[in-house]
Design goal:
By secondary structure, the protein is mostly helical. It is 58% helix and 0% strand. The protein has helices at 15-31, 33-40, 46-58, 66-84, 90-94, 109-115. The longest helix has 19 residues, at 66-84.
């Protein structure tokens, strides 16, 4: 059996390098929106899909640690590959557009008790 070299992920050398890589990934997502819409038969305008992609990138806009940015880049690239290769189901893609996708608000025990959810 031949020896397979280990896969080494590329790390950013500086914040400027990480920024360049993030912009490249963002453009890759935006460029492939039409193909994603065709593959998943999305019944919404491209502007909605593009806005959701932008929203996900904006969520991590103020991350300043290059190692954290690298992890987010790897996760974003994996999501892109899974989406473009149609390894996701239709429901997985629609989950990104769910209107109930708000951050969970911390609730107090007494509030839950009053609502009858304890």
């Amino acid at each position: 059996m031949p020896l397979v070299p280990p896969v080494v992920t590329r790390t950013s050398t500086s914040l400027a390098d990480a920024r360049q890589r993030v912009i490249h990934l963002y453009r890759l997502w935006q460029k492939n929106v039409p193909q994603i819409m065709i593959d998943y038969h999305l019944c919404m305008p491209q502007s909605v899909v593009r806005a959701k992609i932008r929203e996900h990138f904006e969520k991590n806009r103020f991350v300043s640690n290059p190692r954290t940015i690298d992890v987010l880049l790897i996760k974003g690239q994996m999501e892109f590959d899974e989406t473009l290769n149609v390894w996701k189901q239709y429901s997985h893609v629609l989950r990104y557009f769910d209107s109930n996708e708000k951050d969970a608000q911390p609730t107090k025990y007494l509030d839950r008790f009053i609502e009858g959810r304890v």
